[in-house]
């Protein structure tokens, strides 16, 4: 199928994009890499009157490191993140996760801002931003808003972005010395959206977790920062603690049934991910074997 007819405007600055969005409101859609928007138009799932192309805004495609923060412009492409030495050094969780986002052709065009604004619950990057305690920066006619990633995602394809706002950047705290991360997903084929996934970032003190952010995806309407981590922090982890965390996790997730996996299977996969994460981060292969998930 072909996309329905639309008007097209190229914005050459953030201000121009915001002016266009203010003028056209929810009759307009921002066009970034087009890797989610164009299929949606071609399938006639959306029919905006206007597409506002932010591709020409060079300032939005950048990665910088300053004052303990990585700042990633919204139009930074997945492939840019994959190749960036700054991402590898200061947010290696992102580097690991990107390899699971679609295929090279899509990673060459798709952008981080598009991925976060699109807010597919099975998407890798929103979950990573929650695990990394990132801040999403948006700009609209009334100025800038800074939104913690954990609050930004509201539901399936739903965020706190208003129709006249542009996502401009994401700030990610540089990882501390000794921090560790874990990323894994279950997908039917390489490059497919996940059936269940986990992005985690931890600080480890000896044989204990000093902090642990567990961000599950594809098992709810949005990435879930699991409170089950409370069962695992501040004491050497035992099998009993891990089993309690697995039990608590079940109450926090509300997965959906679809053609890829049942609700029960998604719960099971989430528990397996939690066990694998703890075993991997603590280097405790003894732990997982006897926990029945
Ligand atoms: C075959 C296929 C497989 C895929 N597999 C995966 C996968 O495994 N994991 C995954 O995460 N993604 C996957 N994707 C999606 C891909 O990663 C997209 O690149 C990404 O979701 C959107 O980025 P984009 O720049 O292309 O955004 P676009 O398609 O241009 O836009 C997506 C949405 O975000 C809005 N938007 C874009 N940028 C902004 C902004 N700066 N401010 C406000 N709103 C904005 C648009 O209006 C639109 O609603 C897949 C896509 C395809 C076609």
Please describe the topology of this protein:
Layout: E1 7-10, H1 14-24, E2 28-31, H2 37-42, E3 50-53, E4 63-66, E5 69-73, H3 78-83, H4 85-90, H5 92-98, H6 104-107, H7 112-118, H8 124-131, E6 135-140, E7 143-148, H9 149-152, E8 153-155, E9 158-159, E10 166-173, E11 179-186, E12 196-205, E13 208-217, E14 224-225, H10 239-252, H11 263-282, H12 285-288
Helix pairs in contact: 5-8, 10-11
Flavin-adenine dinucleotide binds at residues 29-37, 39, 54, 74, 101-102, 106, 109-111, 113-115, 117-118, 120, 123-125, 161, 166-167, 193.
How would you characterize this protein structure?
Helix content is 33%, strand content 26%. The protein is of the alpha+beta class. The chain has three domains: 7-53, Uridine Diphospho-n-acetylenolpyruvylglucosamine Reductase, domain 2 (2-Layer Sandwich); 59-173, Uridine Diphospho-n-acetylenolpyruvylglucosamine Reductase, domain 3 (2-Layer Sandwich), CATH 3.30.465; 181-288, CO dehydrogenase flavoprotein, C-terminal domain (Enolase-like, domain 1, 2-Layer Sandwich). Helix 5 packs antiparallel against helix 8 (124-131) and helix 10 runs antiparallel to helix 11. The mean pLDDT is 95. The structure holds flavin-adenine dinucleotide. Flavin-adenine dinucleotide (FAD) binds next to strand 2, helix 2, helix 7, helix 8 and strand 10.
């Amino acid at each position: 199928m072909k996309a329905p007819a639309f008007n097209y405007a190229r914005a050459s600055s953030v201000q121009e994009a915001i002016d266009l969005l203010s003028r056209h409101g929810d009759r307009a859609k921002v066009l970034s890499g087009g890797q989610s928007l164009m299929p949606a138009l071609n399938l006639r799932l959306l029919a905006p009157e206007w597409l506002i192309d932010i591709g020409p805004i060079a300032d939005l495609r950048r990665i910088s490191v300053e004052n303990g923060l990585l700042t990633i412009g919204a139009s930074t492409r997945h492939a840019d993140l994959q190749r960036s030495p700054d991402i590898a050094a200061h947010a290696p969780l992102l580097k690991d996760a990107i390899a699971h986002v679609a295929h090279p052709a899509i990673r060459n065009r798709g952008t981080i801002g598009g991925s976060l604004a699109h807010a597919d619950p099975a998407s890798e990057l929103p979950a990573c931003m929650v695990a990394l305690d990132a801040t999403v920066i948006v700009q609209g006619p009334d100025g800038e808003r800074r939104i913690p990633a954990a609050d930004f995602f509201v539901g399936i394809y739903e965020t706190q972005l208003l129709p006249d706002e542009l996502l401009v950047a994401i700030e990610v705290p540089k990882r501390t010395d000794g921090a560790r991360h874990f990323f894994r997903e279950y997908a039917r084929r390489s490059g497919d959206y996940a059936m269940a996934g986990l992005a985690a970032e931890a600080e480890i003190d000896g044989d204990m977790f000093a902090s642990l952010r567990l961000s599950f995806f594809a098992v709810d309407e949005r990435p879930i920062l699991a409170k089950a981590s409370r069962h695992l922090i501040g004491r050497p982890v035992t099998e009993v603690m891990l089993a309690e965390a697995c039990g608590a996790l079940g109450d926090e997730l509300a997965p959906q049934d679809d053609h890829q996996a049942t609700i029960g299977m998604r719960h099971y996969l989430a528990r397996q991910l939690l066990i694998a994460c703890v075993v991997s981060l603590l280097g405790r292969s003894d732990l997982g074997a006897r926990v029945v998930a």
